[in-house]
Write a structure and sequence with these properties.
The chain is of the alpha/beta class and 359 residues long. The chain has 2 domains: 169 residues, no CATH class; 173 residues, NAD(P)-binding Rossmann-like Domain (Rossmann fold, 3-Layer(aba) Sandwich), CATH 3.40.50.720. It is 34% helix and 22% strand. It contains 12 helices and 14 strands. The strands form 3 sheets. The chain has a 6-stranded antiparallel beta sheet with strand order 6-7-1-4-5-8, with helices on both faces. Helix 5 packs parallel to helix 6, helix 5 packs across helix 11 and helix 7 packs across helix 12. It is globular. The two termini are 36 Å apart. This is L-erythro-3,5-diaminohexanoate dehydrogenase. It holds the Pfam family KDD_N. InterPro entries: GroES-like_sf, KDD_N, NAD(P)-bd_dom_sf.
Length: 359
């Protein structure tokens, strides 16, 4: 596809951050923009993807699910309609309540002559950047999706920028499984890095993962063990997930606690062998900041991977508790994170079993 006369006449020059696609009056990056330019014609350093499947992030999907559940009945048509409206209005998938989006799987359709991403037409890829900053057009009305799951069959297109990230999908894995893993691949990579920092100081840490039976949580438990944790504690909200995580064998101890109850979470982690030197928060509900801080030892580290986290609540909560803890925001990117997560999936039957069960 050749650039249209609209692009030829457009005075905006391409920027690797995607700034040229922002339609706001103010100079903001695509993630903060209210609307993006979704034209299919490419600037020289862009790549266009024919979308096969979206993966809505857990916090966003749960919020939509709660919003459109009345009298115990979920209205999938309303969830689908709202996703379509968000994308049509904003030119990207960014839930206005949670601020989060997800990622996608598709096939490379066109590559600009100056793209640095190393992709080739025909590559099947998973994007490793958020849908909150990815220009997106849905062309099938999400007709194959019932609004009942995070994974969304979709026909449409998306655009990647010069500083976007995408990984070619492995041939040996179901694309839906690959998408599920790549959606959360930043969590285990950063968990491993932090645990390795402790191990390098000859301090094998106790690691507690809140939401340990979930996607990012199960991978983070496997990563912590592989990186040298002395003890791993998986925290789950109810007995069913306790049994599931225990069967997977990913944690030395599995504790049951409501992560929104700070005292209950602190006590559960302590009883399981804590306080934790490293606490990893992977749950998709708000209000878990205080408990995570209380469950962490002095001079310990809390890693927040949930998009439901209030970072002001975390900062002010730690101050109010006089808690000397380091708090890290999991930004979803660590070099080599996708390959590392796939390595964990292939090498750990417990992780793979949990992922395949969720699919």
């Amino acid at each position: 596809m050749n650039p249209s006369s609209d692009i030829q006449a457009d005075v905006r020059t391409s920027d690797p951050t995607g700034l040229h696609r922002v339609l706001d009056d103010a100079a903001v990056l695509p993630q903060a923009a209210r609307r993006l330019d979704t034209r299919a014609e490419l600037w020289p350093d862009e790549v266009r993807i024919r979308v096969e499947r979206l993966n809505l992030d857990a916090a966003s999907f749960r919020q939509l699910e709660r919003k459109h559940t009345k009298y115990g009945e979920r209205h999938g048509d309303a969830v689908r309609a709202e996703v379509l409206d968000i994308v049509a209005t904003r030119g990207k998938m960014q839930n206005p309540e949670t601020g989060s989006g997800g990622m996608l799987v598709g096939t490379v359709e066109e590559v600009g002559p100056e793209s640095p991403l190393g992709l080739t037409v025909g590559d099947r890829v998973a994007t490793l950047v958020s849908l909150t900053l990815t220009p997106l057009v849905i062309e099938d009305g999400l007709a194959r999706w019932g609004g009942d799951s995070e994974q969304v069959p979709c026909d449409g297109y998306a655009v990647l920028f010069g500083r976007s990230i995408a990984a070619v999908i492995p041939d040996d894995l179901d694309p839906a499984l690959s998408l599920s893993v790549m959606d959360v691949c930043g969590a285990p990579a950063l968990t491993a890095r932090v645990v390795e920092e402790y191990a390098a100081r000859r301090q094998a840490p106790v690691v507690a993962v809140v939401g340990g039976a979930g996607k990012s949580g199960s991978l983070s438990l496997a990563a912590a063990r592989q990186a040298g944790a002395a003890r791993t504690i998986g925290v789950v909200p109810h007995q069913d997930e306790h049994d599931l995580l225990t069967g997977a064998g990913l944690a030395d101890v599995v504790a049951v606690a409501d992560a929104r109850d700070p005292i209950a979470l602190r006590d559960a982690v302590t009883a399981a062998g804590g306080p934790a030197d490293v606490t990893v928060v992977c749950v998709d509900v708000p209000g878990c900041e205080g408990g995570a801080i209380l469950a962490t030892a002095e001079r310990g580290t809390v890693i927040f991977f949930s998009m439901a986290t209030s970072f002001s609540a975390a900062a002010l909560g730690a101050e109010g508790l006089a808690a000397d803890v380091r708090m890290l925001v999991g930004n979803g990117y660590v070099p080599g994170h996708a390959a590392y997560a796939m390595e964990l999936l292939r090498g750990d039957a417990g992780v793979r079993g949990l992922f395949e069960r969720r699919l």
